[in-house]
Amino acid sequence: MKEIILNLIENGNYSEARKQLIEMNEVDIAQLLEELDKQKLLIIFRILPKELAAGVFSYIPYELQGYIIESITDKEIKSIIDELFLDDTIDFLEEMPSNIVKRVLQATDDETRKLINQFLKYPEDSAGSIMTIEYVDLKKEMTVKQALEHIKETGVDKETIDTCYVLDNNRILEGIISIRKLILSDESTLVGDIMETDPIYINTHDDHERIASLFKKYDLISMPVVDNERRLVGIVTIDDVVDIIDQENTEDFQKMAAMHPSDEEYLKTSPLTLARHRITWLLILMISATLTGNIIIRFNDVLQSVVVLASFIPMLMDTGGNSGSQSSTLIIRGLALGEIKTSDIFKVIWKEIQVSAIVGLFLSLLNFVRIYFLKKIDLNISLTVCITLFLTVMLAKIIGGVLPILAKKLKLDPAIMASPLITTIVDAAALTIYFSVATWILHI
Amino acid sequence: MKEIILNLIENGNYSEARKQLIEMNEVDIAQLLEELDKQKLLIIFRILPKELAAGVFSYIPYELQGYIIESITDKEIKSIIDELFLDDTIDFLEEMPSNIVKRVLQATDDETRKLINQFLKYPEDSAGSIMTIEYVDLKKEMTVKQALEHIKETGVDKETIDTCYVLDNNRILEGIISIRKLILSDESTLVGDIMETDPIYINTHDDHERIASLFKKYDLISMPVVDNERRLVGIVTIDDVVDIIDQENTEDFQKMAAMHPSDEEYLKTSPLTLARHRITWLLILMISATLTGNIIIRFNDVLQSVVVLASFIPMLMDTGGNSGSQSSTLIIRGLALGEIKTSDIFKVIWKEIQVSAIVGLFLSLLNFVRIYFLKKIDLNISLTVCITLFLTVMLAKIIGGVLPILAKKLKLDPAIMASPLITTIVDAAALTIYFSVATWILHI
User: Which of B86, B210, B286, B415 is the one with CA 20 to 30 A from A53?
Assistant: First the structure.
C-alpha cells in the first residue's frame, strides 16, 4: 500500500495518489508524509481534503508542522485551524517559535484568536492546557428527541459526542448524559430527568497527575473541566490522558535515574540539552561519594593489615546498593499508583525487615560457603564479610523502603529516592559496617 | 457523604443508607464497602439493586470478591455474573481459588459457562484475556434507521455502543461505524455505505504490548478482536488498555531494578514471595561484583604504594555507574515507547559520544579544581583521577546506550540492561582504567 502510493507520487500521478490516500487512516498518512522530501510533502498535503488535512496535520512532528505553516498561504492556515480541534491547535502552537504563532494568530478570526490566547495561558501541567472545547451542550428542559436533534445539528465538529454536557443559562455544569442513554431512552423523556447529576469533574488548574488518577479510578472516556464558578470551559478526552500517563512515567524513569525530567524525545534532543539534564545530579552524587572515599582513608590501617578485605568492598557496596534500589523502586511505584500511602510507613518497614532478613540470610550463607569452603579464606575474615553482607542488606532495604515515603511526607518527589541516591547512602553505610565488624572480629 | 452513610449503616438504618448509596458512583461505593466489617459489607452488598451490585463487585479487591461469593447463594451468584461484563468476570475468576471458580461455573447457565471456560483459556498476556463480548453488531444492508432501532433494542447490556461492528453472516468483520456517524447521517442511508471498511483490529493471540501501542498510535477508544478467519470474537476497551499500560510500566520499573516482574500489589504480597522475586538477580550481580574485587587484589601493589588512590574508588565507581544508568534508562524507555528503533544504534552511539564528552569534561575539570587546588593533592594523582573520570564517563555512557539496543536485537528484554547490570559492568571497567592510568602516569 505505502509503496504503491510512494510510487504514484514519485511518478507525479497525484490524482490517483489522492484517491488512495483518502482511503487511509490519518495516522498512517502522517507517517507516510514524514518519509517524503519537503516539496512533495507540501504537494500531497495540499491535495488532501480540508478535514483530512487537518487530521493529518495533528499527527505529524512539530518540525514538519512548522515547515508546512511557513510554506502555505494565510487562507490555507485559516482553513486548517478551523478544522483542527482546539486542543491539537494549542499542542502545536506551544511548540512553535513566536513568528509562526504570530502568523497563525493573524490568519484566524477574532473569536478563535481570543480562545487560542486564553488557552495558551493555562500552565503547562494544568487541565486547561490539554482540554478542548468541541463538546455538545444540552439543556435540562430538552426532551430526548430535541436533544438528539440538537446533536445532529451541531455535532459534526465535536471531538466527542459520546457524552453530552447539561448546562444552565450561565453555562454552569448541571449534569452529564451519555449518548447511549439518550438513544436508549424514550423520546419524550426530559434530559433533566435522566442525566447524571453528580459527574466527576475537574478545575482548569488541576494538575495532570490528578486528571490521570481520576480517569483511571472511574474508568472515564472524557471529563468536564470547569472554572471556579463551576462553569463548563472544556473537556479532557482519554487520548490525551493516555499521553499524560506515558509522559508521567517517562519523567519518573528519568528522575529515578538521576536526570532532570524532560518530555522531549531522545533522538530529537541536542547533546548539549541532554548533557545539561544529566550533569546536576551526577555532580551532587559525585561529591557525596567522596564521603565514602573518606571512610576508606580513615580505615586505611585495617586495609593495610588485612589486604584481602579490600577485594570484598565492591561486592558489599554493589549488593547493598542493589538491595536498597529494589525496595525503593517498589515503594516509589506503589506511591505513584496510589497503592501505598504515607501512613503505610510502618507496614512497609515491617515488610522490609522480613524480606531483608530472608534475602540477607540466604546471600550471606551462600557467600560463606563460597569464600570459606571453596576459596579457603580465613574463618574470621569470612565471618566478617558475611555478617557485614547480612547487616548491609537489612539496612539497605529498610532505608530504601523508608526514604521515598519520607520524601513524600516532606512534599518532595519520592522518585528522587531511587537507585543513585540510595546507592550512595548505602555505600557509606556498608563500608562503615564493614570496618566496624572487621575491627571487632579481627581485633585490629 | 461517606461519614453519613457509614453512620446510617452503624445505626442499622439500611433503607436510608440504600437510598444514599444509589446516588453514588459504583467506584466510590466499592471504596466505602472496603472499610466495613465483613458482616456489614454483606448486608449492604445485598441491598444494592442487582445491576449496581454487579458494577460495585467489579471494583472491590479480589479478596473481598472471594468472600462475597463464598457467602451468598447460588441464585445471587448467577444474578451477579449475568450483570457483570464478561471481561470483569474473567478478571475476577482468574484470581480466585479453584473451589470458588467451580462454584461460580455451577451457578451460571450452560451458555455463559461455555463462554467463561473459553475465555479463561486465552493466555494471560493475550488480547483474548482482556476482551469482552458486550458489543453491538450490525449488518451492511441495514439502513441507519434500522441500525439505531437495533441498538435501542439490544444496546442496554453492552459495555460500549459508541462503536458498532458490521459483520457478515459468518460473523466476519466487514467494517465499523461510530454511533456518532449513525446519528449524524440520513435515516435512509445504508450502513454499508458509510461504515469504515478498513478498521484497525487485532487477533485474539496478539499480546498486550501490541494492543497498547495500537491504541496509542490511533487514539482509539475500543478495538475489535478477531480470530484467524477474521471473525469477530470480542472487543477491547480503553479502560483495560490503561490498566495494561500501568502494568507494563510497573514491570519495566521492577526489571530495571533487578527484580522478577510481578503485578501483585506490594502491600498484598507476602515477604517470602517478595524475597523470591529479588534474590536471583542479587545473586547474579553479587557474584559478578567479585570480578571487580579481583581487580583490586591484582593491583594491590599500586594501592599500597599510593594509599590515597583508594579513596577515589567509590567516587569513580559511583559516577561511572550513574552515568551509564542515565543513558541506559533513556534508551530503554525510548525503545519501550517505540521512539528508538534498533536501527538507530549508530545515532545513539554518536549522541552518547557527544553527551559523554561534554559531561565527562565538565565533571573532570571540576574535580581537578577540587582535588588539586582545594585539597592540594599531588598533580600526577589529580591527573590520574580526572583522566580516569573522563574515560569512565565516556565508556559508561556508550555501554549504557548500546547494551539495551543489543539486548533488543538478541530478542532479550532491554529493561534488564538497566542500572544494576550496567553498574556492575562499569565498576570493573572503571577500576581497570583507573589502575592502567595510574601505572602509566605515576610510573608504579
Answer: B210
